[in-house]
Amino acid sequence: xxxxxxxxxxxxxxxxxxxxxxxxxxxxxxxxxxxxxxxxxxxxxxxxxxxxxxxxxxxxxxxxxxxxxxxxxxxxxxxxxxxxxxxxxxxxxxxxxxxxxxxxxxxxxxxxxxxxxxxxxxxxxxxxxxxxxxxxxxxxxxxxxxxxxxxxxxxxxxxxxxxxxxxxxxxxxxxxxxxxxxxxxxxxxxxxxxxxxxxxxxxxxxxxxxxxxxxxxxxxxxxxxxxxxxxxxxxxxxxxxxxxxxxxxxxxxxxxxxxxxxxxxxxxxxxxxxxxxxxxxxxxxxxxxxxxxxxxxxxxxxxxxxxxxxxxxxxxxxxxxxxxxxxxxxxxx
Length: 333
Known about the structure:
This protein is α+β, with helices and mostly antiparallel strands and 333 residues long. It has two domains: 4-113, Glutaredoxin, CATH 3.40.30.10; 127-317, Jelly Rolls (Sandwich), CATH 2.60.120. The protein is built from seven helices and 17 strands. 45% of the residues are buried.
């Protein structure tokens, strides 16, 4: 099957989701300017990446198929929902062709390379139900980053010249890992990461759309590794973590409130290939979590800049989120 499939009934969509490993659905409105603008990009991706029974591209008119749109709580167009093995794994809204293209290409490559078994699920650097990961999943746990409520994210002391807070939860592989060390220094101009501003501290507030159990936190930091450059950004070193706060903490406030856990990362904790470290949590302390505060107290070395490319949360999700609570991860602030 090549090109796109125009969906004319709920039954047709259901059959498609059952017959193809990956299905990308474009919800559009014929009268919407943004829907019209991104349509050629979507059609081009379909012509390049569609594979019979593996990767299928579909379109749903929210006007003609209002029932389908309502069932997935699509209210704004264009919207793109990606399904894998008949499960909804990702939702994007708006007309950002680059982000959509990268996400679909990653999934298409994975679907193409997978055999009839488990394929690349759970491997470091793979795209799974929670997107790209820099480390393998611990047995019995999954990626719950899609439970992050991106609408409530808050990041203090970040440099506005770099990506916003939602960049940390992009589902795609960090651009620096694709392009090598040159990109890690910023020379490629694609700054899809976060750097601290006036000093090397960062304070991140992360609310969730459901109660989660957090087993591990994966942090990716693609620094250049140039020890002679005192101004080059460095990786986080000491990280303090709080649970179930109603809002972010101030830097002075963090000194007065005991953290649930403090972790000091060593250079050996960082995987050389994926630039990712795993924060092993005291799991019993993170059983019913609806928000986290992560305080990067300092970084490796003497640099005043700390860099983080991605954060992934590994554990178990609690009460199932209502359809429609999914938000686009990685939207510009």
